[in-house]
Amino acid sequence: MKENPPVPDQPTASDVDMSFALDALTEEKGVLHAVLLSTDGLVLAHSGNLPRETADRTAAAASGTLSVAGQVGELAGTHGDVKPRKIIIDLPDSCVLVFGAGHRAVLAVAVAADMTSSLVHVATAATIKTINGLAPALSTRERPGIS
């Protein structure tokens, strides 16, 4: 996914509540929760069925995971500041999908199935559709004092 920084006056995920889209995503079969976060680990929105405290911890962990995965990409021959497009965290009976969602934006989705399940494929397709449908608003501006 191409990451374009937001233009002035363009609504972004840091300006607009995107919870409605995350709630719609959790209506897909097998999708448990969704969190939209900034690459520096702040919650921008989360599905209504997820406690805020869990969303905060998830945002911090997903941000760190995305950063580490970018560094591990060197194993595949990538160089420089390469951001992964999708990370799958396979857990017993569930998985978490972490997607680069736009400029400085990340979308984490919990699925009630292991990564070989067709439910994960359905959740992946629904998440990509959500990301594409909300672009270019799925971006965040740089916070002052943060680089």
From TrEMBL:
<dbReference type="Pfam" id="PF03259">
    <property type="entry name" value="Robl_LC7"/>
</dbReference>
<protein>
    <submittedName>
        <fullName>Roadblock/LC7 domain-containing protein</fullName>
    </submittedName>
</protein>
<dbReference type="InterPro" id="IPR053141">
    <property type="entry name" value="Mycobact_SerProt_Inhib_Rv3364c"/>
</dbReference>
<dbReference type="InterPro" id="IPR004942">
    <property type="entry name" value="Roadblock/LAMTOR2_dom"/>
</dbReference>
<feature type="domain" description="Roadblock/LAMTOR2">
    <location>
        <begin position="18"/>
        <end position="111"/>
    </location>
</feature>
